[in-house]
Each structure stands twice: as C-alpha cells, then as structure tokens.
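User: I'll paste a sequence; please echo it back and then give the predicted structure.

Assistant: Echoing your sequence first, then the prediction.
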Amino acid sequence: MPTRNDMLLLTGFVAVVLAAPFLFEPIGAGYPDLLQKFAIFGIFAIGFNILFGLTGYLSFGHAAFLGVGSYTAVWTFKLLSMNPLPAIVLATLFGGLFAALIGFISLRRTGIYFSILTLAFAQMSYNLAYSVLTPITNGETGLQLSQGDPRVLDIAFGRDYGAVLPSSDLFGLEMTGYPGFYFCGAMLIVCFYIALRIFRSPFGMMLRAVKSNQNRMNYTGLNTRPYALTAFIISGMYAGLAGGLLAVTDPLAGAERMQWTASGEVVLMTILGGSGTLLGPVIGAAVIKYFENIFSAFNKSMLGDIFSFLPESLQSGAVSVASLFVGEGWHLTLGAMFVLIVIFLPGGLMEGIRRIGALARRKKPGGGASASTPAE
C-alpha cells in the first residue's frame, strides 16, 4: 500500500496537473497546446525513466515506440472510430509489442552496445516508415485522415461526420483546447501513479538491483534478463501511449517522430529533471518543451522591446548577443543550461529542489533534529 508520503506526493501532483492552466499562465505557458505537450512528453519521460532510471539501460531508440503509437492511433481513427479510447489502448499495446521485439534482441547486450542496438533499430524504423512502408505510413507526407475513411464503429453507431474532416472526440467532447489537455492530464496522472507503484514494489527493487550490480546478481544464479525486458516493454508502452496522445490532439503521424533526435530529447528530459526520481522526468519534459515553445518564439524586435531601457549604443549589442540564444538559436540556451546542471547538479533539477528543501529545514528552529524523507 502507498505510504503517507506517497499519497501526499500523488495528491500534490494531481493538484498541479488540474490547476496547470492557472499555475503556468504567469510565465506564458497556460495555453492548451503547450500544456498538452507538457503532459504527453511527461508520460514519454516517465516511461523512459522506468528503464533508464531504475535499470540503468540507456536506450537511444525510444522514438521508435513513439512513432508506432502515433501511426497506430491514426489508423484506429481511420478504420474504427474517432473516439480516442480505442486509439490509445491500441497505441499502448502496439508500442509494448514492438518494444518486446526490439528488447528481446537488444537486451542480449549491455552498456554502450545495448544503446547502439536500440539506436540502430530506431533508425531502421524511421527509414522503413519514410520509404519502404509508404503504403502504411504515407512516407514523407505523413499519415492523415480523409473523408473516405471507413470508421466502421462510428458508422455502426450512426455517427456521420458529413463532408467535414473529423477530429478526435470523447463521446462528443472534442480533444482540442483545454478538454484535450485534461484528457492528456488524466493519462499523465494514471501513468504517474503506475510509476509510483512500480518504484515502491519488489519489482522496482529488483530493477534497482540490476542497475546496482547486474553481474553479481547473475553470479548468484538469478536471471536478470526477464526483469530488464519487462521494464523495457513497460517503457515502450508508455512511449506508445504518448505517441497515441500526440495523434489524439493532432490526428497526424509522420516519420519524423521516429528520428534519433526525438530519442535524444527524452534522454535530455530525464537527465535534466533527475534520473531515477518520480517527478524529475516530468519536470525535465516541461522545462525543455517550455524552452522550445517560448524561447524559440523570441525575435529581434521583441528583444529590442525588452532591452529598450538601455542606451541605444548598448541596446543593439545586447540584442545581438541575446538573439544568439533565442529564436532559432534556443538550443544554445538549452545546451548551456544542460551543461550547468550536469556540472553543478548531477542529480538534475530534483537535486536542486532537495538542496533548497534541506537549506530551508536547517533555517527552521530545531529543523536539524528531525529526520525527513527526500523529495522525489
């Protein structure tokens, strides 16, 4: 059963997700499209953390499962129904099945060899989706909905979209705007709760033992591969669900979701937030997506307004320097922040939060005498 601290953590997490439009409004991140990305990539990062954070297996191919989930969801919309529930169920299932296939082969190796194998499989998947499997994926154009799609379940229940290109809807509630975010947010809460139970379970303890010293466990006669494969499949299911939710909020699937850059992004999210923690991957996903959507929108005219208080001789120089780190150069800001965090906070942003909490407790009268559980 969850402990009191776990219930407090879960309650606080649920409260933040539900109040996200109001909490993030002051920093310009309260609009639904960005909040949906926070939730979806938070799920992606939580799943990756179950593999990397608990077992230590670093996969560079998780974008393959994200892409499989997206393609599965769009095909479900085309063939069955625009209701998102069948789409996300099948996307999660196919993500797990594809992860089982890749994991069965890749987990025959460990360390960098495992990472390279997953990267190779992801790149093969990307190239298959981009060219060879064009009848299924529609190649570089991407898989999209059309008015001539059969949608047999919708027709069976008398649902007729007429001449309008349909969008996903949950029993009549369209998955756009804030309803779409809260649907993704509900999935995020469920995924966070499942991850919490895994972290606190004997299975989670076995995964930590695999990360700690897999060779020693093998020498005792315990076969660790089934545990690692199970973690890999669960992680793939999370990625498939995230890919399905991307299609739910925008019914389109393209091969670019399988590129190695997408796999690298989830690695950055997890390490930036704090690998092996519960909240870290979600925080890392939110930070990276915030930088991507907010900082990339800055241009020189906006920077000119920001530095308008400076003398004109200094203003142009400040704008020129700052423009290197925003707009198309926002990756420089992300890279600089990542370097600083790895150097000064090797445990990610969660380590910074722990340090602030510990400092606050020391300043309280008698704070040093009481034991406390570190935040996750």
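Residues 369-374 have pLDDT under 50 and may be disordered. Residues 22-259 form one domain.
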